[in-house]
Amino acid sequence: MSATPHRRRKLRRSVTGAAVLAATAGVFVAALPAGATATGPEDGGSATTWGHGPTVEVQLLSFNDLHGNLQPPQGSSGNVTERQPDGTTTSIPAGGVEYLATALRTARQGHPYTITAAGGDMIGASPLLSGLFHDEPTVEALNKLGLDVSSVGNHEFDEGAAELARIQNGGCHPKEGCYEEGKTFPGADFPYLAANVTDEKTGKPILKPYTVWERKGVKIGFIGVTLEGTPDIVTAEGVKGLKFHDEVETINKYTKELNRQGVRSVVALIHEGGMPASTAYNYDCDSAGPGDGISGPVVDIARNVSPQVDALITGHTHQAYACSIPDPSGRPRTVTSAASFGRLYTDTTLTYDRRTGDIVRTRVKSANHVVHRNQPKAADMTALIDRWNELAAPIANRPVGYISADIPGRGAGTYESPLGDLITDAQLEALAPADKGGAQLALMNPGGIRSDLAHKAQGQEGDGVVTYGEAFTVQPFTNMMTVVDLTGEQLLTALRQQVSGANADQPKILQVSRGFTYTLDLTKAGADRIVTGSVRLNGEPIDPVKTYRVAMNEFLSGGGDGFPVLKEGRNKLVGPSDLDVFNAYLSAHSTAQSPLDPPKADRITIVK
Asked: Where is the 5'-Nucleotidase C-terminal domain positioned along the sequence (predicted)?
């Protein structure tokens, strides 16, 4: 039975490891480190070498959520957490396509049967080096990386279905044309799979639903889906004319189709994920300790996807894991994710039985590996980055502001971030004048803050200098700002929707502008987490019947990220882009002699 969207959105703690393995004694070993061995009753004692004998070792390399990060990500977004033998953790700088290319090419050595796959969000929400050119540089890099297949993710739809088709098929941008004289964008060498995304008029998938990788008689099918809730987290224009279907039902449908074609080995690429109990990339997801394991939508998906699917490559949550989750028949199955931004890759061994055409599930092993920056850079990627950087330099390197220290945003690890405060203050200041909208407060979705502002110079600009390119990396969507009328009751409802409804299990805490304060009580559940009477604007309690002018980007005012009440806003005024507002604030409030200090992030009081 397939999981319903409602049931999948409820995070379920899946405690795997000893408890599951004990129930399936001798049946499965998963998430072993590279080079480890695993045997079981299905193996029959047969020897496995590279293509000789009845079985073949197929190497599956995978990553997800690259988001156009060709250069090493800034701040904490460019680190991964490693768990040490004594239980402590350390932070390791990682990522950058020059290093990712080297890591993947090194990993492939000695593996004649090797596939490289991705779990979506290769493009979209990208830094300026890629985003300025509608992600053509990233697709070019992925082609050079030897990517064989990718599912679409929600961010592949940021610019709509027509632009996604161009990304796949090539051609110059319809408005901006070709970026380099004499060169036409060739498109992706690899197939983007969109099995659960159909055209509303024709009912057919907008891109290929699956592909079959074949080498010397070895056949493995790949089915690609994005999360069914994509319309909730992409602008309405981006998903116009499209329908997004249940992930489980879609995967099961095309698994049967592949089986009818004689393809018995199937891997699902799913742009939806989970939340492991630890953020360490090498955490043993299958350990049996209290509170261990993985939760999130991927748990229900994995438990309902057909047992004929041999492994699930996932993404979207930007987490790192290599777990085993029972399939509908009760047999554990490998489910992986390689964090984000090219900081990790996953190496999975699939033992293919030539006699049955299927994967020997008892011998699947998988582990995540760090894309270290102490390895040689791939020369072709360096050349690619240099070439596009030269085109972007006149815009990217322009200083727009100055900061006195790191201002954490996406990497803050807290519900309220200093960068979130800075962004909302910028929005309030820009839209407070009567002729600009008369905003009294501003709200910002946390997912729209894509990076940190790092004090250390990324290039030649100098420490503390914020360039246009760095500001773009923080806010790459170029959402237009809006100001709307909301009653106090609607505003209170929006706060409650942060922790209830679609956001009940994965709260999305809005960033708020100065003067707006409230208490979030995490000891309570659902909407009750917003403490009654604590919500104030400039010291005054919010009046449920009073009307307030609220600034937010067009994504939020369209009800995005699970805030349907924000769609009810009246008297909408559309203003400048969020990026223009952010840059203007940085320029107006900082100089080299008087840089901006990080905000205190003290507007939301947290009770634990």
From this structure: 406-568
Taking every pair of C-alpha atoms in the chain, what is the biggest distance, in angstroms?
78
435 contacts: CB under 8 Å, gap ≥ 6 = none
Judge contact between 222 and 190, C-beta under 8 A: no
What gap in Å lies between CA 308 and CA 325, rounded to an integer?
14
pLDDT tens for 570-586 read: 999 999 999 999 999 99
The one-letter amino acid code at 153 reads G
Amino acid (1-letter code) at residue 220:
I
What does the DSSP 8-state code read for residue 320? Answer: E
Q: Tokens representing 452?
A: 């940190």
**Which one-letter DSSP state was computed for residue 94?**
B
Residues in the chain: 608
Give the DSSP H or E segment for 211: strand 210-215
| Cα distance between residue 267 and residue 261, in whole Å | 15
Q: Report the alpha-carbon distance of residue 492 to residue 483 in Å, rounded.
A: 17
- β-pair partners for 390: none
Residue 260, H or E segment: helix 247-260
The dihedral of CA 376, 122, 285, 210: what is its sign? negative
**Nearest CA to 338 among 121, 28, 21?**
121
Q: What torsion, rounded to 10 degrees, do the Cα atoms 523, 527, 531, 536 define? A: 140
**C-alpha distance from residue 116 to each of 168, 273, 312, 348, 398 (Å):** 17, 19, 14, 10, 37
Q: What is the DSSP pairing of strand 210-215 with strand 218-226? A: antiparallel
Alpha carbons 344 and 370: distance in angstroms, whole number = 5
Tokens representing 548?
A: 């307030």
Question: What gap in Å lies between CA 447 and CA 167, rounded to an integer?
Answer: 24
Beta bridge partners of 487: 547
Calculate ∠ Cα 97-166-141, nearest 5°: 15
Terminal CA-to-CA distance of the chain, rounded, Å? 38
For 380-438, write each residue's pLDDT tens digit.
999 999 999 999 999 999 999 999 999 999 889 899 999 999 999 999 999 999 999 99
Q: Which H/E stretch holds residue 19? A: helix 18-23
